[in-house]
């Protein structure tokens, strides 16, 4: 296991989060806040482009779940039910879990967040306001009634998203205060303290691959909007 400087307690400093994953995480936080505040205050001139940027970013994260670094791939943190069930009793132990990435419950949280964000941004693409003054880039492909239904559901899904955000923050506090495990710092620095042993350090891929993934996601989303507006 490739390590940094040891602490003398059987732990080694290991880089578990690559730069693209960390940047994605914090830009996502920013975009969610911007989208929420702009929507609540009727600033659709900000809300609509921010929502499109959010959709690009989340699609890029989905692609990164297949092409990214080891800990960021879905196969690393989407665990079978029996493994999740066996993890639950460990929550009562006041000791860090020392997972090289997301633990089984954290993996569920990531998947749930991605799915809700995709649904939320996808609904916004087809939504239109009551007066028809502000509309998503593909609202013209559906009827006004369908676009209004998308807008209403778009508003309702926000409540689910806020619930997930609240659970996420509560989990961070629980792990920090009860289990004495820092989840935020590794997502800032990329490094975590893990048990030393024979297990190799997670494989991290080049930043250039992340730029390619982001370009593909932007081409699919923004290019798709442009093609639809030209030919539909």
Question: What do these coordinates show?
Answer:
The structure is a single chain. It is built from eight helices and two strands; from the N terminus they run βαααααααβα. The protein has a two-stranded antiparallel ribbon. The longest helix has 34 residues. The protein has one domain: Fumarate Reductase Cytochrome B subunit. The protein is elongated. It is mainly α and 232 residues long. Helix 1 packs antiparallel against helix 2 and helix 5 runs antiparallel to helix 6.
Layout of secondary structure:
Blueprint (H helix, E strand, L loop, with lengths): L10 E5 L3 H22 L3 H24 L6 H4 L3 H7 L16 H23 L17 H34 L6 H6 L1 E5 L11 H25 L1
Antiparallel strand pairs: 1-2
Helix pairs in contact: 1-2, 2-5, 2-8, 5-6
Could you list some keywords that capture this structure?
232 residues; mainly alpha; Fumarate Reductase Cytochrome B subunit; two-stranded antiparallel ribbon; 8 helices; 62% helix
